[in-house]
Design a protein that fits this description.
36% helix; single chain; globular; 2 domains; 12 helices; Aspartate Aminotransferase, domain 1; alpha/beta; 7-stranded mixed sheet; Aspartate Aminotransferase, domain 2
Length: 349
């Protein structure tokens, strides 16, 4: 695969901004117009008056050890959303190139394309909410630079066929980005090991879900060293702040708690699916590899509104492509799940 041909020419020739902290993190620092007296926060142990490491060396090393992937293949973003935007910026010329998405799927792919004035092609998932391999393969043309795939998919919660993804990457000269935000709940390793071997395959992940750190806003990508260097070149120099970096490193050191969260959520997920499947007015419940469940009812807007009025907030996904009647509920605590099931039964009467 000639991955370089997919990259925008101005990105290949771009001279990135070299931040003051790029080479010097210690010493008598008089190069970045910082406040030398410290921050206004008393007992500030983070030295917030100094800019953070733009190379995120400690953070990348921690994740490298966590997932057994070389540091050179890892890049961090402000959540997965920044990385989605960076991939579009790197590979797609506005008003010329196209991105393929497979709906129903995560809405930010389309939104980011629209913001960047990049064309979007929708090649729908099949009736099982999996990749339509032939349709997807045939849709790729000269101006198709990027494909976003969500696995487990949002909102259908299922893993996509990994063999299809790998075959497509090996046969087509197009950059494929697999969003594995929910992979922790699938009890599978995902595609990170393939992403460092296949030049036009990348994976993005987040600390927002299983790690319980949505408020921190931190995601990362795994890709070839060439693609990772492009991401590092294009990202804002100080996109990950010191507090975010510190909290993520601390979270990684507490892997046992993360594993406990995942186990509890998977157990509760199964219980909710069992209960939903027995409700007469629930037309269909999708199996789930994620931390949420999608189910279908005849009057989704009405059910959503009744739940909302009773303090239960879920997502109405019935207006998404090929998802008519669909509602999505995140797995909560046992108490929250019990309340949801109780109020849903009332709403369906």
């Amino acid at each position: 695969m000639n991955i370089e041909n997919l990259v925008r020419k101005n990105i290949l020739s771009l001279n990135p901004y070299v931040a003051a902290r790029h080479s010097h993190l210690s010493g008598t620092l008089m190069d970045a117009n910082e406040n030398p007296y410290g921050s206004v926060i008393e007992n500030d142990s983070f030295e917030l008056n100094r800019y953070p490491d733009p190379n995120q060396v400690s953070l990348r090393k921690a994740v490298s050890e966590l997932i057994s992937i070389p540091v050179e293949n890892i890049c961090f973003g402000v959540g997965s959303d920044e990385l989605i935007d960076l991939f579009i910026k790197i590979f797609c010329d506005p008003r010329k190139d196209a991105v393929i998405i497979c709906e129903p799927t995560y809405g930010m792919y389309r939104v980011c394309c629209n913001i960047n004035d990049v064309n979007v092609k929708n090649i729908p998932l099949n009736s099982n909410y999996d990749i339509d391999y032939d349709a997807l393969s045939n849709a790729i043309d000269y101006n198709t630079k990027l494909i976003f795939l969500c696995s487990p998919n949002n909102p259908s919660a299922n893993l996509l066929n990994s063999d299809f993804i790998i075959n497509l990457a090996n046969r087509k000269n197009v950059m494929i980005v697999v969003d594995e935000a929910y992979i922790d709940f699938a009890q599978q390793s995902g595609l990170v090991n393939e992403a460092i071997k296949i030049p036009n395959l990348a994976v993005i992940r987040t600390f927002s879900k299983a790690w319980g750190m949505a408020g921190v806003r931190c995601g990362y990508s795994v890709a070839s060293q060439f693609v990772t260097e492009l991401l590092l070149k294009v990202k804002a120099p100080y996109n990950i702040n010191k507090l975010t970096s510190d909290f993520v490193i601390r979270a990684i050191s507490n892997k046992e708690r993360y594993e406990n969260f995942v186990d509890i959520i998977i157990k509760e997920r199964k219980r909710i699916i069992d209960k939903l499947s027995k409700m007469k007015k629930v037309r269909k419940v999708l199996p789930s590899d994620a931390n949420f469940i999608s189910f279908f009812v005849d009057e989704p807007q009405k059910v959503f509104k009744v739940l909302e009025e009773n303090g239960i907030v879920i997502r109405d996904r019935s207006n998404q492509f090929n998802f008519s009647g669909g509602l999505r509920v995140s797995v909560g605590t046992e108490e929250e799940n019990n309340r949801f099931l109780k109020e849903l039964e009332k709403a369906l009467i």
